[in-house]
Amino acid sequence: MTLSQIFRPLAALSLGGLLLLGASAAGAAGQAPLAKEAVADPRRPDADKARDGDRKPDAMLDFARVQPGQTVIDYFPGRGYFTRLLSTAVGPQGAVYAAAPQLWIDRLKGKPLPPPVSAEAGRGNVHEVVAGASMNVPVKADLVWTSQNYHDIHIWGGAAGTAQLNKAAFDALRPGGYYIVLDHAGVAGLDDAGMAKLHRIDEALVKQEVLAAGFVLDGESQALRNPADDRTAQVFETGIRAHTDQFILRFRKP
After folding, report:
1. What pairing do the DSSP bridges indicate for beta strands 216-221 and 246-252?
2. Which of 85, 99, 118, 158 has a Cα at 20 to 30 A from 74?
3. Residue 9 in domain
4. How confident is the model at residue 78, as a pLDDT?
């Protein structure tokens, strides 16, 4: 089942002649790195741009090693903040699959999902799918990306839910492909009740679960760390919202 069956989106327009800088040209005189080009995309909504200061998207795309022509899975894309960035970064020869978890759809109980990014002008390389035991993507991907949602899968489906997610990510990737997990950091040893209350997760638990799926840890980013966050507040509380201490892990499929 695809989300197009749920949304019945408008026909997406082609990216046409949009030109993106490749990694080899990133350092050329007068040219910005690929990630900065994606962030500067004038098609991005103002609501997305307003979040850039907190989400540091250029650093995120650099860390994920996104390149033109890649196939990327944006797992649990929400309203499409990273879907749009990834769409611009991979360009017209690439593809982005916005994969909504079946667990999430089940919890919505018939409520409408956010409008599909594929229906926006110039987003012809975006495709909505529903992910369950598999990512439901027809080709092997270069990158699986998930941002601030790994803990939700653990809350809703327990360890079995995240085990299914990690296996689906592993199976969806080509050898050498990357799996990026970005989430709100919880205190060491945070239990399931604390996870559900705070919407945080212990970074060590994420590493343990993802490594058990066959991945190797390839890198960690400090770009969204906030030492002032003691990790005990619920992530939606005034004052800490959008300023939580967040870990960013890059795993690789051998």
Report:
1. antiparallel
2. 158
3. no
4. 95
Structure tokens given for 216: 């190797």
Supply the CATH number for residue 246's domain. 3.40.50.150
Q: What is the pLDDT of residues 14-23, one digit of tens each?
A: 333 333 333 3
- Residue count of the chain, please give it: 254
Integer Cα distance of 33 and 145 in angstroms: 20
Pairwise CA distance, residues 39 & 135, whole Å: 26
In a domain, 22, yes or no: no
In a domain, 149, yes or no: yes
Is pLDDT above 60 for 32? Answer: no
* Domain count of the fold of the chain: 1
Domain assignment present for residue 23? The answer is: no
CB-CB neighbours of 180 under 10 Å: 25
Residues in CB range of 122: below 8 A, 6 or more apart: 13, 14, 15, 16, 18, 43
Task: Determine the structural domain holding residue 188 and report its residue range.
Answer: 33-252
* Residue 128's pLDDT band (cuts 50, 70, 90): very high
